[in-house]
């Protein structure tokens, strides 16, 4: 597993030395990969925006979390790029990130979490894992975008 960072100050992770850390720069080629996960600690600076655009264009499964979701919520063109992807995409927002992605507030998300996840899946053509406690009156279930319903 490679962990590619926008900050090259950490050469080795002392907690998980088996991780292979590689800094990402504009001229960096991605390591060989079968899936990409983007988000935690990614930041929201210009480098992160450029890399997110490039990663959205990759033809492999993609998991978006944290900063990647916040960057996505800020840019309609990037949202369209996500909708146009052919490879599977998984979004893993917490309620505040889900609210930003849907242009609403956290209370609305919390009122009907299943409906919020369904709307996210439909809007972004992605698999959605909405973080947080399940509603006690509804069992957990997978919420898949229409192209996965067969």
Task: Tell me what you see in this structure.
The protein has helices at residues 46-56, 66-73, 76-83, 95-102, 106-111, 113-124; strands at 2-5, 20-23, 36-38, 62-64, 89-91, 127-128. The protein has 150 residues and is of the alpha/beta class. The protein is globular. Helix content is 35%, strand content 13%. The strands form two sheets. It has a four-stranded parallel sheet with strand order 3-4-5-6. It has two domains: 1-32, no CATH class; 33-148, Ribokinase (UDP-N-acetylmuramoyl-L-alanine:D-glutamate ligase). Helix 4 packs across helix 6 (113-124). Strand 3, helix 1 and strand 4 form a beta-alpha-beta unit. The chain is built from six helices and six strands; from the N terminus they run E-E-E-H-E-H-H-E-H-H-H-E. The longest helix has 12 residues, at 113-124. The N and C termini lie far apart (32 Å).
Looking at this protein, list some descriptive labels.
4-stranded parallel sheet, two-stranded parallel ribbon, alpha/beta, about 150 residues
Mean pLDDT: 85
CATH classification class of the largest domain = Alpha Beta
- Count of helices? 6
N-end to C-end Cα span: 32 Å
Helix/strand class:
alpha/beta
User: What amount of the residues lies in strands?
Assistant: 5-15%
Q: Percent of residues in helical segments?
A: 25-40%
Taking all Cα atoms into account, the compactness measure Rg is 16 Å
What order do the strands of the largest sheet run in, or round the barrel if closed? 3-4-5-6
Number of DSSP strands?
A: 6
In CATH terms, the superfamily of the largest domain is Ribokinase
Overall tally of domains:
2
- Main sheet makeup: 4 strands, parallel
CATH hierarchy: architecture of the largest domain:
3-Layer(aba) Sandwich
Q: Write down the overall geometry.
A: globular
